[in-house]
Amino acid sequence: MAKLLIIGCGGVAQVAISKCCQNSEVFDEIMIASRTVSKCDAMKEKLQGKTKTAIKTAKIDADDVEALTKLIKDYAPDAVLNVALPYQDLTIMDACLAAGVDYIDTANYEPEDTDDPKWREIYEKRCKELGFSAYFDYSWQWAYDDKFKEAGLTALLGTGFDPGVTSVFAAYAKKHYFDEIHTIDILDCNGGDHGYPFATNFNPEINLREVSAPGSYMENGKWVEIPAMSIKREYDFDGVGKKDMYLLHHEEIEALGRNMPEVKRIRFFMTFGQSYLTHMNCLENVGMLSTTPINFNGQEIVPIQFLKALLPDPASLGPRTVGKTNIGCIFTGIKDGKERSIYIYNVCDHQECYKEVGSQAISYTTGVPAMIGSMMVVTGQWKKPGVFTTDEFDPDPYMEALNKWGLPWKVVENPVLVD
Ligand code: NDP
């Protein structure tokens, strides 16, 4: 029996909250705390009476470490699940350390203000030294490892689908299918259609920053960076069909590259339709993806935040999104002296997710693993002092939980490989 403090009440959080409430045997109490408390209260209203989990709500600005530390100390949870934004990762980790509780999140740190000179200096040094230029990376959170070790606390980073489940798939492949893994291709396909000319499936600001950045992959321990969307492949996805996919930089490449240095090449591909890319290019070309504030009619606005206000709220896409997602990893390598290749993946149906929890599949495929990662930590199955990603624990209980909690997976031998 555990108490979980959940920070954020957006698309992903709403699924994680619903799943915790289905899993009352583990989560007998939760607190939903976010900036807009009315969203937390609405979730409580929706679930109360249908679950044995006792739900509390609170208003919190997670950028305020002192206020957050007080909230954590007062509520005294077993762990804090951060499903706010990556901007809050460090302040929430600080508050967890100050209050002495475990920390869990789904996305690695990136700064809200990429013009901050202090951050920029470190970022530019990293770009030169490591060779990739995405705004997000693990260095900021890995730097907390000693502090979490000394405090005897666990920080579990990136327990969404990708990153998250994809790294658990890698640990599972390594444990059960290979003596040596040589290549990993992570394929993220969203075959869903929401009927809008343009919308993002999770937070638009974070999503558009991610997909408009240069692509990169890891080869023989080194980053190779390429212009955004310049490597394109077609793949025939089970449950979805043929889709174009593009090579992107992605978080788990960094973690897997560090933790599985024997893997010779790690790539990440995501599917996009031509209309999405045309809209994104246009928005980028006119400056709407910029994070640098501009003065408009005497008021300071950040273009990408203004765009976010115009775009549909991802949490509202649920009722109108049809189709399926297929996310997984293709591994090649050696087992018992012979070459082997396998594909581990999950297919998820947008409308099935909506029927179950009122959300589309992108929020669902992230929120379910957020609950599972939290369960791994609070039940002690994944608990050791320090800062870890999901490939650094025994994958078996997590894989079992995916089957049980709505994200069943398949293993296919000899899949079609990506060239
Ligand atoms: P949303 O924008 O829908 O929700 C974010 C929530 O965080 C909102 O409730 C927002 O409050 C709250 N919030 C923002 N700033 C603060 C703050 N300072 N203090 C307290 N609460 C705050 O985002 P999503 O649900 O789409 O995404 C949530 C997280 O999941 C992100 O970090 C995203 O990167 C990650 N993600 C991970 C994936 C994976 O597979 N690993 C895939 C998809 C997303 P308010 O309502 O006031 O704005």
Provide a concise account of the structure shown:
This protein has 419 residues and is α/β, with parallel strands linked by helices.
What is the topological layout?
Layout: E1 2-7, H1 11-22, E2 27-34, H2 37-47, E3 54-59, H3 65-75, E4 79-82, H4 89-99, E5 102-105, H5 117-130, H6 139-142, H7 145-151, E6 154-157, H8 165-176, E7 180-190, H9 204-212, E8 215-219, E9 222-226, E10 232-237, E11 241-247, H10 251-259, E12 265-271, H11 274-285, E13 294-296, E14 299-301, H12 303-310, E15 324-335, E16 338-349, H13 350-357, H14 361-378, E17 386-389, H15 395-404, E18 409-413
Parallel strand pairs: 1-2, 1-4, 2-3, 4-5, 5-6, 6-17, 7-12
Antiparallel strand pairs: 7-15, 8-9, 8-12, 10-11, 11-12, 13-14, 15-16, 16-18
Bound molecules: NADPH dihydro-nicotinamide-adenine-dinucleotide phosphate (NDP).
NADPH dihydro-nicotinamide-adenine-dinucleotide phosphate (NDP) binds next to α1.
Describe this protein's structure.
By secondary structure, the protein is α/β, with parallel strands linked by helices. It has helices spanning 11-22, 37-47, 65-75, 89-99, 117-130, 139-142, 145-151, 165-176, 204-212, 251-259, 274-285, 303-310, 350-357, 361-378, 395-404, and strands spanning 2-7, 27-34, 54-59, 79-82, 102-105, 154-157, 180-190, 215-219, 222-226, 232-237, 241-247, 265-271, 294-296, 299-301, 324-335, 338-349, 386-389, 409-413. The strands form three sheets. Strands 7, 8, 9, 10, 11, 12, 15, 16 and 18 form a nine-stranded mixed beta sheet that branches. A seven-stranded parallel beta sheet has the order 3-2-1-4-5-6-17, with helices on both faces. Strands 13-14 form a two-stranded antiparallel sheet. A hairpin with a 2-residue loop joins strand 13 (294-296) and strand 14 (299-301). The structure holds NADPH dihydro-nicotinamide-adenine-dinucleotide phosphate.
